[in-house]
Amino acid sequence: MSTARAGQNTNAAAEMARKLQDPLANISVIMTDNDILFRTGDGETSYQFQIQPVHAIDFPEYGFTLIPRAVIPIVGAAPLADIPGLENPQPAGGGTTWGLSDIITQVFFAPKTESNWKWGAGPQISWDTHTDSMLKGPGWGAGVAGVLTGSLTPAVSLSFIVGNLWAFQGDFNTLLLQPMLFYNFDSVPGAYIGYNAVITADWKADSGNIWTVPLGSVVGRTFDMGGGYGLDLMVGAYANVAKPEGGPDWSLKFGVNFLLP
Fold this sequence. Notes:
About 5% of the residues lie in helices and about 55% in strands.
């Protein structure tokens, strides 16, 4: 490979990494967000895997972009586990319950701007898709969500996704806040370190069981696969400095993301 070609690949990898760190980027991507949750319930391990397809639709003539995304959760819930996104803690007894929870779709409307900072907002809808009553999230429900994203420096990006979901029926009223802070390494294009976790508040829970607050970090790297395709690999660990009874003490996070032309 020529030096010029190698430089193009590394530059493309760095550009892809920054786009993946921008929730309002004009991209198509299939993201995965996967957590192994340690010491849930009675000290057992639970699992939470999410597939998140995103396909931005640009309307340059009208000055905005629509960014629809879906969150498709696959859960393995141990007995007595209290997992963020599920309506109720798991009952005692039995084994780990595996299946699909309730799918959530979001649509962000993002006006174009010359500023270094962008914002977007829109509705989110929960679909009654859980395959087991113990994996129920909001069921049929809806809410609103917003995004703020920008760059603090050429190497540091910062984003916030915040939203609240309410169930049409049932006992679900939950805030989700996802701060994302990344430092991108110039010496290794596409490589980064950062914070990317979801803070939740279950407003229906008792006062001591409302918040789940993870603290930790991830490291990752994005690779240019050619032809507009990219591959992003990420791994990290988080300890919950606040959690409900039965919630995980800490989690191992990993992600595999596929950027499409």
